[in-house]
Amino acid sequence: MDPQSLKKLNAARAARQAIALVTDLGDGRDRVVHEGDGVAGDLGGALDRAFRTGKSGVVEVDGREFFINVHLPPPRLVVIGAVHISQAMAPMATLAGYDMEIIDPRTAFATPERFEGVRLDAEWPEAVLKQRPLDPYCALCAITHDPKIDDYPLKAALEAKCFYVGALGSRKTHAKRVERLLADGVPQKAIDTIASPIGLDIGASSPAEIAVAILAQVIEAFRKRQISPQMAVV
Amino acid sequence: MSEQFHDDPLKVAENWMGEGRTVAVATVVETWGSAPRPVGSHLVIDADSNFEGSVSGGCVEGAVIADAMDVIETGEPKMLEFGVADETAWRVGLSCGGRIRVYVERLG
């Protein structure tokens, strides 16, 4: 393995960037490929698949055997709102392999007793997200219903190109939110990517059912995301 | 994540390299049947047989480390295969019944 490849690999992983090491098993040469680098041909297709699924493996291209070892950052699920829905989401998200955390400045809601085993910050999202910024491998769900709490993280998530941004609220509530975000300078195109009403349309009614609908939508967004140069973290 | 990164084999390999040690990297490139460690798992070894990580959860590490010594000396990568159907089954093999292919190469 090329020492430079190893250094690039470790630096990208520490910075939560998706990266792959491609090794030609015939001659042992390797190279590092970032997500969105746009490698041509069949090898490029195999790399796209590897980045989308997170699965490493051997591929044969033009009679040569390559090993693609792909490293994806563990997806982070940031939920704004220490509410009933997030209580139900926490164990489900953990089971599905997501690193879930909850942010809610209302200390009456954000108590460790209600959210055992999940990272919980009883602070304003602005303060938390400045310390631990969002990135394309984050999903953000804003579910407090309170614009004072929800609006900032929504804007931050769109700017960080999170793979999923969802906001709880009726169509009427969302229409008002869109007006506020537009007034705040968020482009319409970015606002259009917000999932609202939040969650897949499965007729969810109870908080636990809504949690299932949201988590399913997050998983769909992650597994079907477009691997394109825009996705690359520079 | 930072804790998990601490004893991460690739990070260890980079640290060892920084200390001037010669390092071999072993990687699971293919698995068949039930294999203890997924494709992409690493075991890193230095010239004194110090190692970090795993490619099988203990079943074949000894054999991989022995081959890594050759790789460190010659610089020629090796492809190793382990499984119960293998002729090496009596010595080393996977009791779980799986089969794995491990690529061993020298760093640098």
Task: Provide a descriptive summary of the structure in words.
- The complex is a heterodimer of chains A (234) and B (108).
- Chain A is α/β, with parallel strands linked by helices.
- In chain A, 39% of the residues lie in helices and 20% in strands.
- Chain A contains eight helices and nine strands.
- A five-stranded parallel β-sheet of chain A has the order 7-6-5-8-9, with helices on both faces. Chain A has a four-stranded antiparallel β-sheet with strand order 2-1-4-3, sandwiched between helices.
- The radius of gyration of chain A is 20 Å and the shape is elongated.
- Chain A starts with a helix and ends in an 11-residue tail after the last helix.
- The relative contact order of chain A is 0.13.
- In chain B, a hairpin with a 4-residue loop joins strand 2 and strand 3.
- The model of chain B is unreliable at 1-6 (pLDDT under 50).
- At the A-B interface, helix 1 and strand 4 of A face helix 2, strand 1 and strand 5 of B.
List the main descriptive attributes of the protein structure presented here.
heterodimer; A: 234 residues; alpha/beta; Rossmann fold; 2 domains; five-stranded parallel beta sheet; four-stranded antiparallel beta sheet; 39% helix; 20% strand; B: 108 residues; alpha+beta; five-stranded antiparallel beta sheet; 30% strand; disordered N terminus
